[in-house]
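Entry 14. Structure prediction run on the chain below.
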Amino acid sequence: MKGELAPSHVGARNLPWVATYGNHLWLDPGSTEAQNHTLRVVEDVVRRYDVDAVHMDDYFYPYPVAETAPDGTRRNVPFPDAESYAKYRERGGTLALEDWRRQNVDRLIEQIARRTHRAKPWVRFGISPFGIYRPGFPPEVRAGFDQYAQLYADPLKWYRNGWCDYLAPQLYWRIGSPQPFPALLNWWLGQSAAGRHVWPGLFTSQVQAAGWPVQEIADQIGLTREAKANGHIHFSYKAFRGGTVGAELSQTLAELYARRALSPATPWLDPTPPAKPRVRVKRFGDRLRIDWGGSQERGVRWWVLLRRSAEGWEIVSTFGSEERQAELPAKSDGLRLVAVSRTGVESVPATVVP
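Output returned:
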């Protein structure tokens, strides 16, 4: 903990469901009060702010904290949830401690998904779990940590049950390491369920923190594309800030991301496409002014201007839902405009310039 907590903070109110573990305060996942508090906070954020997604990192029960025992051996400190587990048993619960902990996390994940989609059906819910599901998955990957047994997290269950719109497993190892990136990438992509997305997380910060070559990240991006993953996530943005390495990384990624792209659609949240845009084009000297939209266009998140190229239709510009006008050189040709919904579903394109 750093600094003093505000008086209104849950950690400063002496609540029985706030536990100290290691150097941090944790909400006890086994406490109904802690779960309800978490759900209220998430729902409040979703309702009051125009967010695209609710994203959870890989913290459920904490990573084990070790201590030195009197005999000099190292052991993990037990998480202080004995009281909440005892209450569960008093109410007739029969699950063993480990299974009860996993059930607590499962219920929280399911309810966050349900409440997020109830508040705003188009808001995505996703998680970035530890990058190795369990030791032995896949067999060629060496693993000394088991998130199922130690974090009480079962991301494959959440994914297959449709509680997550995407997973972003943290594939934070190099291509040639004992935890080879290609093997992990292909294993996670092979678990895809009901069209849900897998967007692997890349440990891009290691080009600054651990001296990884920039080419390592470029090669990992290439592997995700070869494997037909429809996206990936960089951790973290600080890798792009300052210094020669940051500049080299930015330049490399600018070349890899030469063409604009939209976020992949989540049609299971709402498959309804927006209406076809109504477009008006006027010429003013050497400029074209394009106006579009009207009162009937609802549920639009983006307007996207496309240009025909040798490789198909590519994005020229994207406009927010409230924008209704653009100017282009009069010699522009082969242009279309599409409306994109909150869930990424595209309308029938409207021809702007044949």
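Residues 97-119 form the longest helix (23 residues).
Filed with the rest of this week's runs.
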